[in-house]
Amino acid sequence: MTQTKVQSKLQSKVLSILEDKIQMIKTKKGAVYLVGPIQLPINLYGETVTFQWYCWLNCEEATESYERIIEKLSSVNLAEFQQSSVLVYGDFSYGDDAMVRLHSICHTGDIFGSKRCDCGFQLKQSMKLIVDNGTGALFYLANHEGRGIGLFSKAMAYILQENEYDTVDANESLGFVDDSRNYDDAILVLKALRSKPVTLMTNNPKKLEALRNAGLEVSARKPLWGDVSEFNENYLETKIKRSGHLEEEDKCSND
Fold first, then answer.
1. Which residue in 24, 140, 213, 250 is a FRET match for 6, CA 20 to 30 A apart?
2. Catalytic, out of 101, 116, 147, 181
3. Active site includes 221?
4. Which listed residue (118, 166, 179, 185) is catalytic?
5. Which of 241, 228, 223 is nearest to 118 (CA)?
């Protein structure tokens, strides 16, 4: 058997395995390709909990030829770019009470455990609340580092914060807006996975607004404050006073 035939046979086998796990979600400019679910056992506060992991990729091309998409991946170095994920727990599609967290990637807080912010705490706590609730989904949004300015710019913003700038002033002094995050792709994936109301875990009213404007029903909001320390007191205070984050839990109306 020639090498070309061997490769074709292998490709056919790979495609037969993967095609049932890939979903195309059309967008205005192309498509979001969602792959999953994948069994992902996670160490959560010393206990092993199994989530269903999905990852998605935003492409300019919209095609249901998944073979074409897979073939193109080897010519694009996706490792240089972050892709977003969603961890699903329980009967997320049909469960009556599902909790959702739209979590922005935070390299310093989520990975290194930095106490300059509360992101690492919010990540783990939201996962625990989802498990305790019985069903929910954690969206991990890769292009949201530093409220959308990227890791390198965030490092420069941190230097400014060490010189008496708050988070908002630091970002704006570098030529950015306070918050440039976009939730369109996450909302498309959420709609593909669930049509029933959700409880949103957030302190940020912009996330509530994004879901509502997209026609999603948010039945309640669950605040996520914690891990307050001398290192992040000013950061958290700026979130409330300048970025409009909400302190108290409130129920969300649909009017």
1. 24
2. 181
3. no
4. 179
5. 228
